[in-house]
From TrEMBL:
Cited InterPro entries: KsgA/Erm (IPR001737), rRNA_Ade_diMease-like_C (IPR023165), rRNA_Ade_methylase_Trfase_N (IPR020598), rRNA_adenine_dimethylase (IPR011530), SAM-dependent_MTases_sf (IPR029063)
Identification of the protein by name: Ribosomal RNA small subunit methyltransferase A
UniProt-listed SUPFAM superfamilies: S-adenosyl-L-methionine-dependent methyltransferases (SSF53335)
Highest taxon above the source species: Bacteria
Coiled-coil annotated spans: none
Gene Ontology MF term list: 16S rRNA (adenine(1518)-N(6)/adenine(1519)-N(6))-dimethyltransferase activity; RNA binding
Described function: Specifically dimethylates two adjacent adenosines (A1518 and A1519) in the loop of a conserved hairpin near the 3'-end of 16S rRNA in the 30S particle. May play a critical role in biogenesis of 30S subunits.
Catalytically driven reaction(s): adenosine(1518)/adenosine(1519) in 16S rRNA + 4 S-adenosyl-L-methionine = N(6)-dimethyladenosine(1518)/N(6)-dimethyladenosine(1519) in 16S rRNA + 4 S-adenosyl-L-homocysteine + 4 H(+)
Membrane-traversing stretches: none
Amino acid sequence: MSVKAKKHLGQHFLTDENIAKKIVDGLSFEGYSKVLEVGPGTGVLTKYLLEKDVQLYLAEIDTESIDYLKENYNQIDNEAFVGDFLKTDFSYLKKEPLAIIGNFPYNISSQILFKIVDHFEQIPEMVGMFQKEVAERTAAVPRTKDYGILSVLIQTYYDVKYLFTVHENVFNPPPKVKSGVIRLIRNPKNGLEGNEILFKQIVKAGFNQRRKKLSNALKILNIPENLKTHGFMDKRAEELSVEDFISLTNVWKNSVS
């Protein structure tokens, strides 16, 4: 049987075996024994993952792809399939560490990254292929046009490395844009002191009005009185480093506790 790429699922099947192996080899396979592949499709990454000494899970919602994988890879059983990655709660892992890998659907790539951040305590590592623009945003630095919510949230919890660019002609069907492969390795300590919710609120409010100074952009969060004259308030969100956002969050929290 064959699998037809479905536009509504954002499917573009990688056809270059060398690139597939290179993506899989981007994982260290150290410190965890379980790997979850998101969107395995026809198994171009799966076949190399099955060669590794790990327990493999597959997040796939395309029934045609699931049937193809079962038919062509007899090592895969029904328990390996966990459904929609964006809806999984990882309860099947019993809090064990899990690495994530995938040729991610472009239409939900940012949602996938935010899901990884939400479960950073359980996910020590990720290697994945995204639309090149999204991959570059994860690694962007302050005072650049690509630096934003995604950059700050990812870099707070993970060290980001842009591994390589993938051209359109190695996919079926070819996407209209280039792709980029990145690796995330979890930071041992981010310094947020348990203030994750406030941190995300500050980052999102700041960048939602990125042309305004933080003194205006953060009004929606009721800035504590003693912070209204803080040096950061005279800056725009894109001027603050990840460390600056963490520092601002901790000072803010201490002001209202």
